[in-house]
Design a protein that fits this description.
Blueprint (H helix, E strand, L loop, with lengths): L2 H33 L18 H22 L5 E3 L4 E3 L7 H12 L3 H11 L13 E2 H18 L5 H14 L14 E3 L4 E2 L4 E2 H4 L3 H11 L2 H15 L12 E3 L4 E3 L10 H14 L5 H17 E3 L6 E3 L1 E2 L5 E2 L1 E3 L4 H12 L3 H19 L9 E3 L14 H10 L2 E2 L11 H13 L3 H16 L8 E2 L9 E2 L4 H14 L11 E3 L5 E3 L43
Helix pairs in contact: 2-17, 3-4, 3-5, 3-17, 5-6, 5-8, 6-8, 8-9, 10-11, 10-12, 12-13, 12-15, 13-15, 15-16, 15-17
Bound molecules: 2-acetamido-2-deoxy-beta-D-glucopyranose (6 copies).
Length: 558
Amino acid sequence: MLQEPTSIGEAFRKSFKILMLFHHLVISLLASLRLMGVLGGSVQNPFLLLPPDTHMHQQAVVNIFLDCYQAYKQFAFPHDDLTPVTKSFFDGRNGWGATVVDAMTTLAIMGQEELFIEAVDFSSKIDFNVSHTSDTVSVFETTIRYLAGLLSAYELSGQKFPALIEKAKEVANKMAFAWVPGTSPIPFMNIDFNTSIPILENSVISQAGTLSLEWFTLTKYSGNDTYRKLAEDTVRHIAQLPAPLPGLAAQGLNPSTGKSVGAFVTWGSGSDSYFEYLIKYARLTNTDDNLFADTWATAVDSSLKRLARTSTVGNHLYLADQQDDGTLRHIGSHLECFHAGNWMFGGRLLDNQTIVDTGLELNEACWNTYASTMTGIGPEIFGFFSSDGNFTGATPTAEDLAFYEKHGFFLYPQAEYYYLRPEVLESNFYAWRVTGNRTYLDRAASAINSINKFLKAPVAFAGIWNVNEADSGFIDDTESFWYAEVLKYLYLTFDDPSHINLDEWVFNTECHPFKAPTAKAVYGSGQVIDQSSFGPFKPESGPLPAVSPAVKLPARPT
Ligand SMILES: *[C@@H]1O[C@H](CO)[C@@H](O)[C@H](O)[C@H]1NC(C)=O
Ligand SMILES: *[C@@H]1O[C@H](CO)[C@@H](O)[C@H](O)[C@H]1NC(C)=O
Ligand SMILES: *[C@@H]1O[C@H](CO)[C@@H](O)[C@H](O)[C@H]1NC(C)=O
Ligand SMILES: *[C@@H]1O[C@H](CO)[C@@H](O)[C@H](O)[C@H]1NC(C)=O
Ligand SMILES: *[C@@H]1O[C@H](CO)[C@@H](O)[C@H](O)[C@H]1NC(C)=O
Ligand SMILES: *[C@@H]1O[C@H](CO)[C@@H](O)[C@H](O)[C@H]1NC(C)=O
């Protein structure tokens, strides 16, 4: 009797080995079919096979999530964030309960029905007409977290809770005042909800250009086409502005005039999700207008020609920033690492293997920032040196240079922290679903280990001040994207691949999935856009708003 489990285990392992052998053959066959163009633009590898230890990793993610969510409920509900060191709360998102609304879709996806219903009930009663704090309201943050959380939860529930759509309309109707008639199609970034008057200041493309998926979806369920039109016209306007590099709009925008401000180009903070949404919007809407997919393809093409560099050590691929004066700044960031998954996704939709492979290469460089540190987690910003330039904006110390010689990047001064961001694990999730290569599962498992080992705070889990030190201290704020993004991407990495299949759902930039129609055979015209008709690039000068990833970071204790 005692022998039996062992022999069954043995038999299972043997048959699994045979299955894996067969699986490798199928994957290679699939790769050839894709090269021959037979599989069109399907994003996910249709023959994904999960190994037997998957459930254990998935359960570890659920445990982390529930631990954090219970701590939030105990110490911070109904406020925005848990502060896991002081066991209290922080209202950084107008006090509407950001963690509940942002975590709602993760609860649905994890099958936590009771907590999900509780969250829906809470969300259906939020009063979005007034900010619960003295802050103005960010149109971008409110759209990607609250509006998207409500809409995606509505879809994931099988459209069971119309109150979610009512709330979505309520908050969008207030935000719609960000678009001021008689100015430009660019919305202002922030609004005073007391008066419904926007704050007059410059904006950036990541804030103005990352509303389209959500506002399109709101139109789908409300029947009010104004929402779609507002957000879509903004993207059309940005995409047709004269640009410093083809397809790569300058970061700054003046909503009063509709013109670019400065000439800064980056795939990182302040620009990132504008590029992300170009291709996702084409996919979610299946529009016949090629502007969105073609602008994305043009941005990728320009990036390969002008921004792509490899590090002199380790040959890591990265996309440098181009500054106002045209010089390249050789840095990358955690936020920017969404680009790897986005290029895999878009490369599949365009049926362009070069773009998919480049996405996989970018993913290697991003993962290297995790694999190289003593915690196994990557920093906020990292510097590189290439053979034709090494300006990073920082003066690397002797230790930085020694670290670089070993790992091919260095931790950027003052940005050695990890703030519970998702992008590296997000791209790792895409890499798994697109290729079926089990290395990406191993990496996700290693990240879960690191989280359990180094991020366990007095309550729940927290960010840390230095990813290359075992005890640098915890950051006393658990942002809602920890619940919405990090833990959802990790969970889905170990989930049945037919659940939230990348050919059926499009993720917003906060990891809230929207249901997509059946894909078209191919996206875009196959041509890059000739921008000469947009006129010469003559930006305004002026201050850009602070979009530093760390604006909301609590002060580091000394
Ligand atoms: C918010 O304002 C709208 C429009 O004035 C109103 O219809 C709605 O009932 C208000 N919501 C709440 C929760 O008071
Ligand atoms: C909105 O009004 C409330 C209550 O009068 C006030 O506390 C808050 O500071 C106001 N918000 C802004 C952005 O002025
Ligand atoms: C549609 O939405 C816009 C923007 O919030 C609003 O001004 C308009 O009144 C809405 N139309 C209807 C018919 O509800
Ligand atoms: C794929 O994209 C790359 C980068 O833009 C481009 O150079 C190449 O021509 C494209 N390949 C095809 C087959 O369109
Ligand atoms: C950076 O480039 C300069 C000029 O080519 C060179 O002198 C210097 O050694 C380089 N520094 C590093 C860290 O590669
Ligand atoms: C799987 O991915 C890893 C990391 O990118 C790579 O080294 C390895 O060659 C890949 N394996 C296959 C079979 O493609």
